[in-house]
């Protein structure tokens, strides 16, 4: 008995495609948790292609499961020697095993019988994988919004600007579109016409939220008074929390639009699906980079504020402690937010310098400075004494010489008389 499964990795997830029993055995042997890939969704879009009959039979014969890539599951691509494609950005390979055991070796696709050699099927599978990765990210953000102290709905309702009310409207429109998609299995012209008008609102709101975070960082950067810093950082605890929640909601909705957009392209222009998928991934990375730069700058300013406070802890012990405490709260909130969006960070919590510790440091420095001063005084005193002794000796010699000369002169005068 020969088993064959086909592996596809796009950097975010791993698709395992093949006979249902073989796929299950592979996932069990690797200890992986998976979701249904949903290959059946490709049938309508592939029905008009020249190889429609072959595509339909391949879909019917195969089961597909999707695994979110973690550090552990990402090692499978290396373990099984998947081959990368610069054009599609995918790593693919076929794994064969004997007697029901999925192990042994990887054989790169050569024959015409595998799903991976069908460009339309491969592009469609990659498109579905991108959707599943974004839906997983949406779930992670939903969990994030549910666990923070002040939910984004509360934040938005408290704002006076109408743009935040627009975001809630966008949320309703997109959630409705996703519900219809789940029921119908596709995104119709009517549904898409409602959704595509929401992108500008989300972009505007995201830009506004980033500006608010930048403004908080600017205020902290230009304030050196520890008392004022304590007030600013305390206010930042709440404000940063709120704006991060707004950003998270915007990012989640942008991912939802991308999911719907891929469905729309798969339905209307399947030949463009692969290029469109790559374009959406690049746009998503650009959004992440923009958010990363803004939040990293904010954390850097919070750290700088804490450093300023620690330097002045002797003069402002309570305010300095408050600045460090608030800075750590802000940085922790930012780090949690970044983690949910997949942004890496390496910031560690700063400790507030205790007054006694700072006083000890100052005392030690003073003692060191005092010891240096004493040593310098001693050296100076020694050098002065040596110079004084030398000067005294020279003066004594000059006086003795003059006295001897006077005596000689007096003796000569006496003899002459």
Structure description:
The chain is an alpha+beta fold and 417 residues long. It has 3 domains: 2-118, no CATH class; 148-353, no CATH class; 358-417. Helices cover 70% and strands 8% of the residues. It contains 13 helices and 7 strands. The chain has helices spanning 20-30, 43-46, 52-61, 71-79, 119-147, 152-158, 162-184, 189-195, 199-221, 226-268, 273-311, 317-341, 355-416, and strands spanning 2-9, 13-18, 35-36, 63-68, 83-84, 91-98, 105-107. Strands 1, 2, 3, 4, 5, 6 and 7 form a 7-stranded antiparallel β-sheet that branches. The radius of gyration is 38 Å and the shape is elongated. Residues 104-113 and 349-385 have low confidence and may be disordered.
Give a concise summary.
This protein has 13 helices and seven strands. It has 417 residues and is an alpha+beta fold. The termini are far apart.
Topology:
Layout: E1 2-9, E2 13-18, H1 20-30, E3 35-36, H2 43-46, H3 52-61, E4 63-68, H4 71-79, E5 83-84, E6 91-98, E7 105-107, H5 119-147, H6 152-158, H7 162-184, H8 189-195, H9 199-221, H10 226-268, H11 273-311, H12 317-341, H13 355-416
Antiparallel strand pairs: 1-2, 1-6, 2-4, 3-4, 5-6, 6-7
Helix pairs in contact: 5-10, 5-11, 5-12, 7-8, 7-9, 7-10, 9-10, 9-11, 10-11, 10-12, 11-12
Biased composition (Basic and acidic residues): 364-389, 399-417
Region (Disordered): 364-417
